[in-house]
Amino acid sequence: MPKVSEAYKEEKIRNLVQAAKKVFIKKGYVQTSMQDIMDEAGISRGAMYRYFNNLEHVFLEVLREDDQKDVAFFEVSNDEQIWPQIQRWLEMQQQVIENINQSLLQAKAEFFLTSQQHKDDFSYVSQRYDEITEAIEEVLMLGEQKKEFQLQQSPERISRYMISFLNGLMLDTFQLGMKQTKVQEQLSILCFTLEKLLYKE
């Protein structure tokens, strides 16, 4: 049997993760099976299990890929203005929330909040929370070093405030709908308060 190159394996895993993401968005976590993902990807059981042990393993890879997009968004160069970058990220979050039924939120909620069998994966929940908050902290500290910001609270407090606000708004919107949660108005208030936290009057 010919040896499979690392590049081929990585490409195959990326394709499987994309197929799995489509299924999780459509069906959530609880209603998804490995067979659903195989059907979406058009591969055999043997090929699927060559790369993933079980549904949990697949979902964690989907999460990792999704999370890296947020982390990468905060990798700014020294000559870039940071506040416009934060505003663009918040606009991206608004798009996600406004298209909440085409997001992974249902699957994430089912995986982390309603299923007792995934307690061992809470270490990853903690890790992913730390990664995104640390990415925001670093960009806030960079803004302070560049004299763009005069932070009124610690970078850690501001980053956790941002994530908690957005997570709460996402969950509320998923449960209640955009009409009730008034997403755009809420995010305008978030931007307003962030400016107060980042700049000295």
TrEMBL record:
The keyword Transcription applies. It comes from the Bacteria. Residues 33-52 bind DNA. The keyword Transcription regulation applies. Residues 10-70 form the HTH tetR-type domain. Keywords: DNA-binding, Transcription, Transcription regulation. Pfam families: TetR_C_17, TetR_N. This is TetR family transcriptional regulator. It comes from Oceanobacillus aidingensis. The lineage of its organism: Bacteria, Bacillati, Bacillota, Bacilli, Bacillales.
